[in-house]
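Risk register update: the risk of archive-format incompatibility is retired. Evidence:
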Amino acid sequence: MDFLLANWMLILVALISGTMLLMPMLRGGGGAASVTPAGAVQLINREKAVVIDVCEPAEYQAGHVGGAKSIPLGELEAKLPGVVKSKATPLVLVCASGMRSNRAVAIARKLGYEKAQSLSGGLKSWREASLPIEKT
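Archived output:
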């Protein structure tokens, strides 16, 4: 008991930091859902996820994830339902750095695609993981 009273501040700091570490996991990650390049490969291979590249056409032609479908962010709301019919299909949304794809996740979820996720770090992280890039 003396230990607890003497070190109450250290114990409080440990409890607060532990809580802060667990909060994102308990809240489901908060913000836009994201997936690592390795996680995206697993989704593509195991769950037949569809990869949607939300970059502009010139960026898409310069390099994109193999098999990705091109729908620029500005056209996503109008074109996504025509490209991916089933709203139960997992989606991996990709852009150059991950910023636009986070916005794309919000749009996809608004349309009812609850399994939409952003590729964290975008195409840059895909390249850094030495995963294949296609050019058109």
